[in-house]
Amino acid sequence: MKIKVAEFIKQIEDGDFQKEVLPAIACKSATEFAAKQLQPLFAAFKKAVSAGKTVQVEQPVSLGTEQASLMLESGIINLPFANTKSVDNFFELDDEVEEITNLIVVSANVNASGLRIDSFGTTTAFLDDTVAEQKVTANILRELALIEENVKNNLDTKE
Q1: Residue 35 · residue 41 · CB < 8 Å
Q2: In terms of Cα–Cα distance, which of 119, 115, 110 is closest to 144?
Q3: What is the pLDDT of residues 34-83, one digit of tens each?
Q4: CA 59 to CA 137: how far, in whole Å?
Q5: Average pLDDT of the chain, as a whole number
Q6: Does the pLDDT value for residue 130 go beyond 80?
Q7: Using DSSP, how many helices (H) and how many strands (E) does the chain show?
Q8: Which tens digits make up the pLDDT trace of 12-38?
Q9: Number of domains making up the chain
Q10: Residue 38, Cβ density class (10 Å: 0-12 exposed, 13-18 middle, ≥19 buried)
Q11: Which residues form the domain of 153?
Q12: Which of 1, 11, 73, 88 has the greatest number of CB atoms lying within 10 Å of its CB?
């Protein structure tokens, strides 16, 4: 789906996009996390994108005592909606660009910045890709395992 940069920025700044926060998933460890638990995340994202909407779907996760947010966003650059003010540094406002699919993982223990962003091509390609969900799921499982490992390492260094 194509969108004008100025229109995208206005939608995000005005909150004129579809935002959905799903019920939290709780698991004791990353190995307990099941890929099928992500189906509501994918279904909500695909439904909104298919309807031509700019979207952010958030899946909160409790991984033991660690909290994380997994978000799928249809953006125009690999920046979360929260950083939309920087978008015009990369594009001209009258440019028309393809929306892309971004996976954003937010957790104090995902890395030093607390934010990890991975892009999975255009939203149109994401809808057409029969293994797109598997690719995103693999990234999510890897990031959850990393969060768990970082929490453990941080606790080990504090003892």
Answers
A1: no
A2: 110
A3: 888 999 999 999 999 999 999 999 999 999 889 999 999 999 999 999 88
A4: 13
A5: 91
A6: yes
A7: 4, 8
A8: 999 999 999 999 999 998 888 888 899
A9: 1
A10: buried
A11: 2-158
A12: 73
- Measuring CA to CA, which residue among 83, 94, 84, 72 is closest to residue 3? 94
The Cα–Cα gap between 132 and 3 comes to: 22
Long-range contacts for 135-143 (Cβ within 8 Å, ≥24 apart)?
136/38, 136/42, 136/72, 136/101, 136/103, 137/35, 137/38, 139/103, 140/38, 140/70, 140/103, 140/105, 141/30, 141/33, 141/35, 143/68, 143/105, 143/107, 143/110, 143/116
- pLDDT score of 30: 87
Identify whether the C-beta of residue 118 lies closer than 8 Å to the C-beta of residue 132: no
Which residues partner with 117 through β-bridges? 104
Q: According to the model, what pLDDT value does residue 156 have? A: 55
Beta carbons of 61 and 67 less than 8 angstroms apart: yes
For 61, residues 6+ apart whose C-beta sits below 8 A from its C-beta are: 24, 25, 26, 27, 33, 67, 68, 69, 70, 144
Token representation of residue 112: 């030093």
Six-digit token string for 60:
């909160």
Mean pLDDT of 107-133: 94
- Whether residue 19 contacts residue 56, with contact meaning beta carbons closer than 8 Å, is answered with yes
